[in-house]
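Q: I'm a student working through a structural biology exercise. My instructor gave each of us a protein and asked us to get a predicted structure, then write a short paragraph describing it. Mine is Xanthine dehydrogenase family protein subunit M. I'm not confident about reading structure output yet, so if you can add a plain explanation after the tokens, that would really help. Here is the sequence I was given:
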Amino acid sequence: MRPFELTAPATVADALEESGTFLAGGTTLVDLMKLDVLTPQRVLDINGLPLHGIDTADGLRIGALERMADIAAHPGVYPVISRALLLSASQQIRTMASIGGNLLQRTRCTYFRDVTMPCNRRDPGSGCPAISGANRMHAVLGTSDACVATHASDLAVALVALDAELRLAGPEGERTIKLTDFYRLPGETPEVEHDLRPGELITEVVVPRLDWAARSTYVKVRDRQSYEFALCSAAVAVDVRDGLVADARVAVGGVATVPWRLEAVEAALRGKPVTEESFTEAASIATEGAKPLADNGFKLSLLPRTIVRALLEVTEGSR
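A: Happy to help. First, here is the predicted structure for Xanthine dehydrogenase family protein subunit M. I'll explain a few features afterward.
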């Protein structure tokens, strides 16, 4: 780790006036600084800022500095969010990591984290060795010739499914953006991963009220049961009425370069009976547009099976 200056602004306004890299839980930033992937000259410790609180009075509002473990344990949080958090990382990391930091975490692609290797996200124009190299964990959806790295956050998948928004504060004032619009596909500029502008700070996560999201879950398929990133995951919420799917939300992770909302699958579920057969038929279109690599073609069959598993889990008792 290289030398850096550390300061602790007392207010949001102070933080926005200073120049540097924001530090919250540090569970991503410190790791990458140790690897020399990130080498900030100045780090701003924002843990003293008033960006806390969980409000479930009408929908869900979460301060950006709330810790993952506290959110998961809160009784008013939608099940899909709690489960996504509890299946993330380890208890120690969940106790430290902030929700804002979780949404901004960088890819776990081994080429990105190895500074001796080329990587277009870390060094634009240097190449993407994962395309022809070790790519079992990489994306099959939303990829480009410049990058095939998956997005790492479980929480982001659940929030995308629920139409969450981010409140941002920056030098030009405050703004709100939908999480689905916040993340950017790699295209020819994979180093631009999101729409956070220079000097901006996530202040709050807002999830609109969705009463039937009480019937929701998050299924994560991985190589081991703890402290492992997803090979494939599915966040689902289902509104069941008279044995039919009145509405549904489906988003997936571990298979795409961004948290991947499957609106076509949602549309295919609406009006259909709550059966494994109808779930399987709807999930079969989840891989449209997928581009598998040499080692990750198994995700084309794993993805629909994971969606069906999540749908069966969340509708148990309604079939």
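A: Here are two points you could use in your paragraph. The first strand starts at residue 5 and ends at 7. Residues 211-314 form a domain with the Enolase-like; domain 1 fold (CATH 3.30.390.50). It's a good idea to check both against the output above yourself.
Q: Great, thank you!
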